[in-house]
Every structure is written in C-alpha cells, then in structure tokens.
Amino acid sequence: MEYHSPASFDEASALAAQAQGVTRFLAGGTDVLVQLRSDLVTPDTLIDVKRIAGARDITRNADGSWTLGVAVSGAEMREHAELGRDWPGLVEAMDLIGSTQVQGRATLAGNLCNASPAADSVPAMVAAGVRVTITGPDGTRQAAAEEIPTAPGKTSLGKGELVSALHVPARGDRGGDAYLRFIPRTEMDIAVVGAAVNLRLDGETVTEAWVSLGAVAPTVLLVEDAAAAIIGTTLDDAALAALDSAARAACSPIDDKRGTVDFRTEVAGVLARRAARFAYARAKGDAK
Amino acid sequence: MALDDSKREFRFVGTRPDRPDGLDKVTGRARFGADMNAAGMLHGAILRSPHAHARIVRIDTSKAEALADVKAVVTRADFAEVPFKPGLAGEVWNVLENVMAGDKALYDGHAVAAVAATSALAARDALKLIEVEYEELPYVTDVNAAMRQDAPVIREGAADFSVPDDMHPNVVRRHESGHGDVEAGFAEADLVIEDSFETEATHQGYIEPHACLGQLGKDGKGELWCCTQGHWIVQKTCAALLGIETANLRVTASEIGGGFGGKTTVFIEPVALALSRKANRPVKIVMSRAEVFRATGPTASASMDIKVGMKKDGTITAAQGEFRLQGGAFPGAPGDMTAMCAFAPYDLKNVHQVGYDVMTNRPKQAAYRAPGSPMAAFAVESVVDELCRKLDLDPIEVRLKNAAREGTKASYGPRFERIGLVETLEAAKAHPHYAAPLKPGQGRGISCGFWFNHGGETSVSLALSEDGSVQLMVGTPDIGGSRASMALMAAEVLGIPYENIRVTIADTASLGYNDVSHGSRVTYASGLATIKAAKDAVRKLSQRAAAKWGIPEDAVKWEDGCAVPSGPNAGDFDPLPLAEITAEMGQTGGPISGHFEATPEGAGVSFATHIVDAEVDRETGATKVVRYTVIQDAGKAIHPTYVEGQFQGGAAQGIGWALNEEYIYGEDGRLQNAGFLDYRIPVASDLPMIDTVIVEVPNPGHPFGVRGVGETSICPPLAAIANAVSAAAGVRMRHLPMSPPRTLAALKARDA
Ligand SMILES: Cc1cc2nc3c(=O)[nH]c(=O)nc-3n(C[C@H](O)[C@H](O)[C@H](O)COP(=O)(O)OP(=O)(O)OC[C@H]3O[C@@H](n4cnc5c(N)ncnc54)[C@H](O)[C@@H]3O)c2cc1C
C-alpha cells in the first residue's frame, strides 16, 4: 500500500490518475480505516487530503454563502457559531455522525463520497442546495451534492477526480432547515430513514422548499413532489398530509436487517412531516 | 438446612468499601486476556466457514504453510480422538467439534483451520491462502422449522433417551414436569388464555473479546493465560481435547471484561495450544468482534405456547407451557430450565410443562444469565398480565394471591424453603413508582422472575502473613466485584480490616478444583468457603493463644480480631491480637492458614419483581423505557453497591434483549449483523436511571444468609418491558425484540 500526502488538489488528482488498483482518498478516515481493518477494502493507494492548504477552512463569502474545506471535521463545524445559526439542520446532520471521537475526524466530503444511501449529512446537504467543486485531470468542475452518489458505494467521480471544496448557499431571510433521522437507539447508530427539509417563507407561507430523503432508495433522494406539496401553503394539516404521501411515494427501499420496506416507507412520511415543521419553526424564528 | 453458626449482626458485611481491583481497572494496569505477551510469541488466526451447513471435502493448507511467516497450521487432525455420545453425555465431543469442525461445517463462522504466524496481519493473510472445498448442504436456523419432519438433519444420533422416536433427529432432549390435573384446573377457571410467544437469540455482549496466550511443549506440559469465567473447566476441557493430562496444563485466569455465562466454555484456547504444540512457540489468539458474534455462544432463541386459567378473584387454577429452544448445531439449549422456571413464582395446584432442546445451523449456544428463565418469564408473565387486564385485576395483587412461599410445592418439583418472593411483591406495591401517574402514551408493566442459583465445587485457602495481613485465594474469577465481597466476609470472621486482606484468583496449580463463576454461585459458595476457611484459621490462631496462655483450647474465643479467654474462669489474660500471634507463628508451630473445600448445596433460590414504565411513539414504533425499578431478594447483601450493580446490569441487558438485540439470519443461513452497529445493545443514553431495592430474606443455607443475585435480575425484564410496551401501544407484543419495525407492524395490524 502506498500512502501520499499531497500539498495541492492538482497533485492529489495527478496521483490518483496515475494510481493502479484500488485508490482511496483519506479525509477523516472514519470509513476508509474501518473498511481497511475489517478486511472489506484494502486500498493500494491512499491519498491524504488533510495537509492541502485550505482543506480545513470554513469561510463565509461576501455574498453570505459559505465555502467549506474538504477536511473540515464535524466538530469544527459544530463549534462554528455563525455557520450553525445559518444552517442548523446541516450542522446537526453532520453532528449526528458517530461519537465525539468520530466527530474529531469525520467530514462532509467523506460522508458524501462514501456514497452510503444512509449517510446522515447528505440529505441535509442536498436540501440545502450544497454544490461541490471537483478537481480532476481536466481541471475543475462543479456539481450538485445529489449528483455525486450514483449507487451504494459508487460515485460519479471519474478516475483522478476528487472533491476540492463544498459550497453552501447564502441563508437569506426567513429560511430554515432541519434534518431528522430514525435510529432504533439514541446515538451511535445508522439511519434507517433520514429526512431533510429546507424552506423559505414569505409571511407564513412557504415560497421555496427542498425535501430530501435518505436510506429509502439506492441513493439519497431530492423529492420535488414533496417540496411541491408544501410550497404555497402555511404547512397546515392538509399540506403535511400531502407531504407525507409524496415522501412515501418517492421511497423504493429494501427489506434488510435494519428495517422493512413498509417500515421505511411509513417512517419516511412521518419524518418528512416532522422535519418540515421543525424547519418551518426555524424559518419563522420560533426555534433555533 | 439451617446452619448452626449463622450470623445476623455484622461489622464489615453490608458496608461499601472501594473494590480492590478498582484502581487497576481505571488506570489500565489490570491485565485482561489480550494483555499478556511472551518472548517468541506467535499470533494465531482462525479460518471460518462462510456456509451455514457444508461437508468439508478437502482442506489444502500447503500454500499457507509455504509462507516464511507461518509457523504452524492446524485442522481437526491435530486434536485428540474423543468419543461421540448422544445429548450432553457427549459434551466433550460437542466442544471439540465446535472448536474445530470435523467432517462438516455446521454454521456460518464454524472454525475449520487455524494458523500461527509471526504477526497478526501475517496470520490473517495466511488464512486467505488456505483452500477449503465445501459441498453445501441444506440448512435450517429457525427452531420451529428445525423440528418439522422435512427439516435438514444436522446430526443423526445426537438425541438422548428422553426424546420420543417419532420426533425429528434435530430434537435432542425433552423435559417434562409438573403436578396435578391441568385439564380439571382449566375447567374450573372463569377465563383461560392461550397464546404463543417468540424470542430471538441474543449475545451476552461482553466488551472484552475472547483472548488467550497458550504454550504447550512436546512433553505434554503447558501453560495457558486466558479470559474465562472458570479456569478449571478450561484446564479439564483443553486437556481432553489435546490428549494430555489435566495436571500438566496450568491455567491462569486474566481479568475479565464481562462474561455473563458466555465465557464458561472454550473456543480459541485449545486452538492456541494445538498451534503452540506444533510450532513449539507460545501462541496468542484474540478474537475480533465479528468472530465473537459468529462463533462464540449466544443464548438460545425460543418459541413458546402458554395456557393459563384464572378465576374472577385472580386465583390461577391451572397453567401449562411448551418451550422449544434452539441452541445451535449441538445439544445444550436449556429447554429443561426454561420449562422449570416458567411457573416457579406461583403456588399452583395444576401445572404442566414440557421443554425441547433443538439443534439448528447456528453457533453452539452458551449460558447467558439464568439460561432459559427470561424467555419463560416473558411468555408466562405476558399471559398473566393479559388475564389481569381482562378480569380488571391489579397485577401485583394477583401475583401476591398466587405467590410461592415457604413450603409451596414448586412447579418443578421440590418444596421451597424460606423464600422472598412475597417480600419483593410487597415492596413493589409500596414503592412510589407503582403509584406514580403515567403520562399519555406511556404504559406500566410488572413481572416476577425466578432463578434456582447454584452451589458447585469450591475450594478456598487463606494464608496469614507475619505482619497480620491475609492472602485469600479463591478459584472463581471475579465477574462482579466478588473480591470485595470475599474480603468483607473474611474480615467479618477474622475481625481485621477489609484493607488488610488481599484476594487473589488463584491459578489451577494453586488450589483444588473450582467450578466456573456461574449459577450466581460465587458470593454464595466461594463466600461460604471463605467464611469456613477463615474460621479454620481462627481455630488455629486460638490454639496458639491457648498454648501461650497454657489454658485449654476451648477456653479461648475469638472477638474483634483477638483471642480472648472465653470467660472469667478461663483465666485473666489481655486480648491477643491476630498480628501478635502471626508475628511469632514461625516459633510457635509454623505458618498459619485456613482451608475449606466442599460442594455446598444450600444456594437458596431467588426471586425478583420489576416495575417498568415505557413510552411508544405510535407513528414510528420507537420505544423508550422511561422509568425502571428492580426489587430483588439478595438474602444478605455483602457489598450492597455490587448487589445494586448486578440488579442494574440485569435490567440494562434485559432492556437490550426486549427492545433491539437479536441475531438476524438471512435467507442464506448467514448471520447478518455480526457487529455492534447492527447488533444493538443499549448505549448509555438509551437507559433511564435504574432504581433498586434490596430485599433481604436470609438464605438458611449460607452462614450470613447470602443468595446469589447475578442472574435473577435478568429474569423479569423481558416480561415487564413487554407488558409496559403492550400497555403503552395498546396491543399485545408477542415477539422479542420489540424493535421499531415489529412494533409499528403490530400497531398497524391492530388498526387494520
Ligand atoms: C463509530 C462510527 C460511527 C459512524 N456513524 C455514522 C453516522 O451516524 N452517520 C453517518 O452518515 N456515518 C457514520 N459513520 C461513517 C463515517 O464516519 C462518515 O461517513 C464520515 O462522514 C466519513 O468521513 P471521513 O472524512 O472520515 O471519510 P473517509 O473515511 O476519509 O473517506 C470516505 C470515502 O470518501 C472518499 N473521499 C474522502 N474525501 C474525498 C474527497 N475530497 N474527494 C473524493 N472522495 C473522497 C474516500 O475515498 C472514501 O471512499 C460512522 C463511522 C464510525 C466509525
């Protein structure tokens, strides 16, 4: 196994482009090292991105948007008060991952590129409209977060490509986001269903909304019908019921050791409703 | 049996000093199974079957053996020939077959070969070079399916005499007991409820994986360091599996990071010794968590049918149950104990119970705290709860009305001596928890539980030092603070401070045979032996004082750590402290020690009553235990903190078992969740504060009144939680664990 610690994304990309066999980028390593130790994936090449300049920075841009480095840990996000005020749902989603120890290492980029359908921060990123910059052999390009995972464990990144930055939109007025997950325990567990809602109000009425579901399909979903169900409403009971059924309709989960098709589908509707109410309260300033 | 020297007033017993192993454990100085190393040590690793059931056609180890790092490879051929016998008569054969597969791999995770290499990584890589040709066979992992006539046969000839001829060969033992006429009893009842229940297999979930370091020479002499609940059984079993003499293997028990019954047998220890014998170097094996799940001993899963009849006033007129337990691919599932415990809390005129031990393609079950009793209580106490609900009766009053007492003929045969069930029920009734209001969406459940408790072979020695300090050697690994309890009991007899007594878990070369730390026996049996050994030492100390004073032995008594004349007629001498006698012992007759060995028979059965409040999210099926109270008879709590710890631990493990823990097998017969991510034991934030009430109804069979407490505490939780969840959800929960998908499905079925 070869280990590299490049100083730039271009160098990282070049190393990955030349590498033979199995290549992994090493951000927090909380997926990579676990898979290595349990004999699931033994990479031939490990490319550490933590030493690249800017990879650990959280930057607020002049227009109110945010640029997050690919090695920023969950703990660093949570301790950033301003980021948490703007995007509490996104920060909480990341903060749900693992334990205090895992939080010291785990990253948004790693969670996204590990491409688990149950990844917690991904629905929150998708609902928030997060975009990523990708550095590759042919230069850089941008993509929406939901375009990265293509199937469990698979991404749209080509050979030699890696995520080099994450971009979170400006929060703007009267907006709120929330992420909720269902786990059988209270912590240290994997989402059986995840639901994120991001919305904006005009007065009491929802004018914009994004609803994203995790662990109910091979990839995290952006469910436009669910958003449409609440846009133009004051999130009354009828709107919530419509949201619930649109969320359920979008599900194509599997039966497995963590939950049944019926259970996941049912709970996706429940969590979508609860997350929408939470985001709505945040947008109105009634909740933090 | 009453003891003539029982004691009820105490100076040390009942206090709560720090445990002697506490500092070692919090500073990391304590040495557990994997903490021992030896010069020239190799690392062992075990190749395991990926199939639920397969004939082993061929094993080719040549490529692995060709590696420079590999120093030995073993398969079944490297172990002794052991005769096969049916049922538990063949237990040595069963253990050998489990430790290393013979002709067939019997479950996913079954060991088929092992290597010893110069590093753990090299050993792991070498396993990949061993080629095994399997012929896959049909398999069965469910207990009811395994009993059906069309089920694949796991092993012909494994059934013992108790099984009728027309049953499937996978049914290997049958138990039947009871008394009276149940049909007549059901006819007298105002209401009869008949229902069926299931529980899934769970793992003890000890945090420390199995680990050992073994060395065995070509001369048949060996040493073994391992994490175990009982090193004499390890010694005896390993010797038999390797064909050496028992006394030639010295076994030392490490500190233990939990066992709960799962470390009462061997898995990797004989393998390490076989590898060592071949490589002529010490070999260490440390299991991974996945190996612990796949290849050690989870508890049995159960399928149960219960029928209980009750009069309108709450009198139970008859009770019967059938209990089918699968314990993996070997005899041993506790169908008998499940049946015997089921109705033990009740004084019944008519009772009948049948238990079956059934084999499936799963790992060989091991004990898990009160094996069988928690499942039985779940089934029976659910039906009793339903009867109380339907007849609008208070569940504690009904249990009091039917409670077993001193003199009751137990459902499993004998007459109870003095027992404390009624006292636990009275304490539950009086507890503020039972009267506390419930919030909307919450439900309350109660349950009783029973366990036999055990005595077992026990040997203890105590040696006095010149300075008056004392070394106490016991043979039962300390799995719950027993070193503290032993020191307290010795202090009580000797009359010297707790801190002056050091308790050691002696190795197999230093004491006579000791049974495993199981059956809640340690504080009872090693405690009894400690008291007797201390009394033996006191007698010798008194003799020295008598000799010094020139008075007869029986004119000396022992008081507050000193020899004193037994009365004014005995003479006028100042009290002679223990340390003054030991200071001169070299000149007055030599070293002074005390010893006791026996198989004490008066363990004293034990009962508990638990009260649980639970909350159910009706939209998701998520359950939360919001309040929990354990009330249990301890006979006499030697160290109350550790008694409370046992109570709380039983409740915590019970919460896991009731709500989320389960072995999940796929269609392919393989274990789906061999890790702590998907095998969900509760984390700290899942648990409420668990309140405890220690009831003390002294056991007449122990000098200080001790009853074991380690197992009874896990008997009521499954039932009490199920009753609480059923009340909160408004639907009877019949299948454990009550995981959110199962609970939501039950809620939807009720509404449909
Ligand atoms: C105890 C424990 C608990 C956990 N709990 C949760 C949980 O609750 N919820 C959850 O969603 N996850 C959980 N995880 C999984 C893991 O922590 C998360 O997926 C985490 O976000 C991964 O981030 P990382 O930085 O550690 O990724 P790494 O392990 O470093 O990398 C993960 C993957 O992403 C790729 N990658 C990393 N950076 C880049 C990049 N810049 N460009 C392209 N590819 C990249 C790697 O090649 C690798 O395939 C848990 C893990 C552990 C060990």
Automatic annotation (TrEMBL), chain A:
Coiled coil: none annotated. Residues 1-173 form the FAD-binding PCMH-type domain. One of its GO terms (molecular function) is FAD binding. Keywords: FAD, Flavoprotein, Oxidoreductase. Gene3D superfamilies: 3.30.465.10, CO dehydrogenase flavoprotein, C-terminal domain, Uridine Diphospho-n-acetylenolpyruvylglucosamine Reductase, domain 2. Pfam families: CO_deh_flav_C, FAD_binding_5. InterPro entries: CO_DH_flav_C, CO_DH_flav_C_dom_sf, Diverse_Substr_Oxidored, FAD-bd_PCMH, FAD-bd_PCMH-like_sf, FAD-bd_PCMH_sub1, FAD-bd_PCMH_sub2, Mopterin_DH_FAD-bd. SMART domains: CO_deh_flav_C. The keyword Oxidoreductase applies. This is Carbon-monoxide dehydrogenase medium subunit. It comes from Cribrihabitans marinus. The lineage of its organism: Bacteria, Pseudomonadati, Pseudomonadota, Alphaproteobacteria, Rhodobacterales.
TrEMBL record, chain B:
The keyword Transcription does not apply. SMART domains: Ald_Xan_dh_C. GO terms for molecular function: iron ion binding; oxidoreductase activity. It comes from Cribrihabitans marinus. Pfam families: Ald_Xan_dh_C, MoCoBD_1, MoCoBD_2. Keywords: Molybdenum, Oxidoreductase. This is Xanthine dehydrogenase, molybdenum binding subunit apoprotein. Residues 27-138 form the Aldehyde oxidase/xanthine dehydrogenase a/b hammerhead domain.
